[in-house]
Amino acid sequence: MERVLSGMRPTGRLHLGHFFGVLKIWLELQEKYECFFFIADWHALTTEYESPFNISNYSKELFLDWLAVGISPEKSTIFLQSAVKEHAELYLLLGMITPTSWLERNPTYKDMIKNLQNKDIATYGFLGYPVLQAADILIYKANKVPVGVDQVPHLELTREIARRFNYLYGIEFFPEPQALLSSVPKVPGIDGRKMSKSYGNAIMLSDSPDEVVKKVRAYVTDIERPRKSDPGDPENRCVAFNLIKLVFSDEEVRDIIEGCKKAQLGCVECKKKLALKVIDVLTPFWERRKEVENTDWKSLLEKGITKAKEVAEETLKEVRKILNFPY
Fold first, then answer.
1. What are the angstrom distances between the C-alpha of 258 and each of 26, 125, 177, 234?
2. Res. 162: pLDDT tops 90
3. Domain co-membership, 80 together with 157
4. Crossing angle of helices 152-168/107-115, nearest 10°?
5. Do 156 and 304 fall within a single domain?
6. More confident site: 279 or 122
7. All residues at 6 or more sequence positions from 101 whose CB lies less than 8 Å from its CB, including other chains
8. Which site among 31, 119, 165, 237 is 20 to 30 Å from 246 CA-CA?
C-alpha cells in the first residue's frame, strides 16, 4: 500500500476551509492509503516564535478536531511532530546539501515576507522551513502528498532535495513524492477572500448554531440584484454560491440556480437555507467533539507517536549508514 503524509500547523481553531479543503480529503485517503497525519508544531514556530505558549493547547484541540471529524487512529498514524526528534536530525542533514538559492526562490517565502509585515519572519527558521517540510515527508518515504495548487512548489523542492541526496550518495534511497492535487475549490470567506481566521472571515468548526447563522447572513451575494424580483446570476456574481456548491447536493444546487435566475428565490431566503445546511453538516462534528474530549485521547496520540518513531528511526539508521555516521 502506498504511503501518504500530510500535516497541519496548530495555530488556532479550524474552520470550514480546513473541513472541506483538507479533512474530508483525509477521510477518503485513509481508506485507500497508509496515511501519516501529523501536528506540525515545530512549523508553527516559524511564524509564532514570539508567542509559543498557545501551540501546545492548539495541538491538543487540533488532535481532538481530527478525531471528531473521523480521522481514525486505527486506520492512520496520527502524531505530534516535535515528539519524533528524528525529523530534526534529518532536517539538519538535508540542510547541509540544500543550496540557499533553492530556498530564496521559493515564491511563498517572498509572498509571506511581504504579506506578514506585522511579524518579523526574516529568520533562518522561516527561510529553511521547506527543508524541514522535506524531512517530514522523506523520513517516512511517503509516495504521495495531498496539496493545493499553491503548495506544489514546496513539494517540488522536496523532490529536488530527494534527487540531490540520491545523486550525491549514489543510491536510490528516497522516493520522489508525487502530488495528490485537491479537487476542492477555494472555500470562500464571508467577504469573498479565501476563508482564513487571520482575515476574520471564517466560519469556525467550533462556532455555535447562532454564530453560523449570523456569519452566513453576512455573506456577500449578488450585488447586482438589489431586489428579489430582479433575476440573479449566482454562478458568476454570488460569493455565497461557492459555499452552496460545497454543502448542497447537485440537484439542490440546480434548484437554487433556477430559483435565483427566475427571481423566485431571494438572497435572504437562500442564505437561511444555506445556514441550516451548514448546521446540518457540522452537527455530527459537534456531537462527536463532545465525545472525544472524554476519551483517553493522550493514549491514542502516544500510539501514533510510537508508530511514527519506529518508521523514522529506521530511516535515520539507514541515512546514517549512507553518510558513514554509525553512532
1. 33, 52, 44, 9
2. yes
3. yes
4. 130
5. yes
6. 279
7. none
8. 31
